[in-house]
Write a structure and sequence with these properties.
Number of strands: 13
Mean pLDDT: 95
Structural class: alpha/beta
Number of domains: 2
Low-confidence stretches: none
Strand order of the largest sheet: 3-2-1-4-5-6-7
Distance between the termini: 7 Å
Order of helices and strands: EHEEHEHEHHEHEHEHEHEHEHEEHHH
Strand content: 15-25%
CATH topology of the largest domain: Rossmann fold
């Protein structure tokens, strides 16, 4: 068993967004195989890390990423814990990870959630190329590289010049390994209709996300400005679109949009995944795998996505429950929603072989042993 120090440089506990759930679940399951000590910011709650040790000693200040004194703090902890491996989430603490690797005789693991340079390029940031080179430097210095999906791994091997033997895909996972029962799905749909006063003949379409993230806000605006008006032209298609998630701008929550319910943050998003008919994923910016799409399909929910939004999910694992259209082809997106709204096939077992946490983490834990 390795003794692993993990650096998470932002709040993630309690986990609410997909990215936060990714770190929380990764740490939880990874600690079943190796001793894990997580170093993170003061805003994190140690009570949400029962399976491993959490030391929230990093500052909440934006300057924490360039605080050279953390080298001495981390070096002391590494020696005290007799750590063998160091994981950094994202490349931003690359300088710190490389220094600790060099001076503490510890193996460095870079856990990538996206190709960050490319993600920021899609968001229009002029400095993306600087980050890209820093990211390349960080990955090349690592002993092991974890990527969230195969396309990112392939890109990094080709563009960063990485040794493929040091790279592995560790995808976002889900906590269950089979679809909900038909009775569970029926009860969820029944409850959802009661909560939001939705008639039995009306199809329930769902979109959720963290709306302090620009790609999700842009996707929400497309639903309101393009997809919903397009669906309204289909007079025989009765539907409602439910929007769930945190930080929805007030100018959207106060709008009176026909056929749209702004539910905001909900305590149990699984009720919506199980009770809806089609999940909408009109995301065309950002990077990484779309965690909300992974969860939707894992709940046996049909889904329509753009090509960009479906990166990391093989349609061959989905039994036609995931339909994909070209980016910005909203006419096809609308038609796919209608076509998929009555589709009743189930997600097959192969889907869970790729996205069940215990399967993917077991590979990661063995990879660094």
């Amino acid at each position: 068993m390795a003794i692993v120090i993990s650096i998470v440089s932002y709040p993630f506990l309690p986990a609410k967004t997909g990215g936060e759930k990714f770190i929380a679940s990764f740490n939880k399951h990874f600690s079943s195989y190796h001793q894990l000590i997580c170093i993170t910011t003061k805003k994190n709650n140690p009570e949400n890390a029962k399976e491993y040790e959490l030391l929230n000693i990093l500052s909440n200040s934006k300057w924490r990423y360039i605080n050279i004194f953390y080298f001495f703090t981390l070096r002391k902890i590494i020696k005290q814990k007799k750590a063998t491996h160091l994981i950094i989430e994202h490349p931003y603490y690359g300088w710190l990870g490389v220094l600790l690797k060099q001076f503490c005789n510890i193996k460095l693991v870079v856990h990538s959630h996206n190709i960050e340079g490319i993600r920021w390029k899609t968001l229009g940031k002029w400095w993306w190329k600087i980050l890209w080179h820093y990211e390349k430097f960080t990955h090349r210095k690592a002993n092991y590289n974890f990527f969230i999906q195969d396309e990112d791994k392939k890109y990094a091997i080709e563009k960063f010049g990485l040794d493929s033997a040091k790279c592995i895909t560790v995808t976002y996972g889900i906590e269950w390994n089979k679809i909900p029962s038909s009775d569970e799905l029926h009860q969820a749909k029944k409850q959802l209709r009661i909560v939001h006063n939705i008639s039995a003949e009306t199809k329930i379409l769902l979109f959720n996300g963290a709306f302090n993230y620009k790609p999700n806000i842009d996707a929400l605006k497309r639903i309101i400005d393009v997809i919903n008006p397009s669906l309204q032209q289909k007079k025989k298609f009765a539907y409602i679109i439910i929007i769930c998630g945190i930080n929805i701008p007030e100018e959207i929550t106060t709008l009176k949009n026909p056929n749209i319910i702004i539910a905001g943050f909900v305590n149990d998003i699984s009720l919506y995944f199980k009770g809806a008919d089609v999940f909408l994923n009109p995301v065309i910016e950002g990077g990484g795998i779309k965690t909300k799409l992974v969860e939707a399909l894992g709940n046996n929910l049909n889904a329509v996505s753009t090509e960009h939004g479906a990166v990391g999910i093989n349609v061959n694992w989905c039994n036609n429950k995931l339909q994909i259209c070209k980016n910005n082809d909203w006419k096809s997106f609308t038609e796919l929603i209608i076509n998929l709204s009555d589709y009743t096939a189930d997600i097959p077992e192969i889907y869970f072989e790729h996205f069940y946490w215990r399967f993917t983490i077991k590979k990661a834990a063995a990879f660094i042993s």
